[in-house]
Amino acid sequence: MHQGFRLVAAGAAIAMGTAMVVACSVIGIEQQEPITCEGESPPATAPGESFPLLTIAQGESPWALVTVVYADGVVVQAENGSSAVEPVTESAGERTDDSADSPGRVRPDDAAGPWRTGYLLPCAVSELREVAERALYGGPEFGRIDRPDLDWTYLRYDNGVSTASAEVHGHGTGFSDGLSWSERRARDALREVSDLLRVNIVSTGEAVPIAAVQLDGELPDGAALPSTWPGPPAAEVLGEAGCGVLPEDVAEEAIRYGVEQGLGDAGAALNLRALPPGVAGCE
Question: 209: buried, middle or exposed (CB in 10 Å: 19+, 13-18, 0-12)?
Answer without folding.
Answer: middle
